[in-house]
Design brief:
Oligomer: single chain
CATH class: Alpha Beta
Order of helices and strands: EHEHEHEHHE
Number of domains: 1
Number of strands: 5
Mean pLDDT: 95
CATH topology: Rossmann fold
Largest sheet: 5 strands, parallel
Structural class: alpha/beta
Shape: globular
Length: about 120
């Protein structure tokens, strides 16, 4: 099964959303799902409940949540993290598309990927 994305508030720029959708990526955003101004754990819980891999710039918080999920035996549908303001919109899109082409939704289960590894 193909990775389906959930972009949290940090990552949901209109240009990125449009570019990914134009390339056939199944995605939704915190805005579209009514999840604005929610804590990070609620974003991850929501993404997990929808079988969507979460994409965010919030590396520290989501790495901590990932560790907590594993320690508690909870599952999530994967997390993709990037450094904010390090990548252009086009570079984010290209790297996300590489991850989606290379990994299945099943392979992302309970895993974290960093777009910095996908040049």
């Amino acid at each position: 099964m193909k990775i389906r994305l959930y972009l949290d508030e940090d990552a949901m720029t209109e240009g990125l959303v449009t570019a990914l959708k134009e390339r056939g990526v199944d995605l939704t955003t915190a805005y579209l799902e009514g999840m604005i101004n929610r804590p990070d754990n609620e974003h991850l819980d929501y993404a997990a409940s929808q079988n969507r891999t979460l994409y965010s710039f919030n590396r520290g918080d989501y790495l901590r949540l990932h560790a907590a999920y594993l320690a508690e035996g909870k599952n999530h549908a994967g997390i993709i993290l990037a450094n904010q303001q390090r990548y252009s919109l086009g570079e984010q899109m290209r790297r996300l598309l590489k991850i989606i082409a290379a990994k299945s939704a099943e392979e992302m289960q309970n895993n974290v990927e960093f777009i910095s590894y996908w040049s």
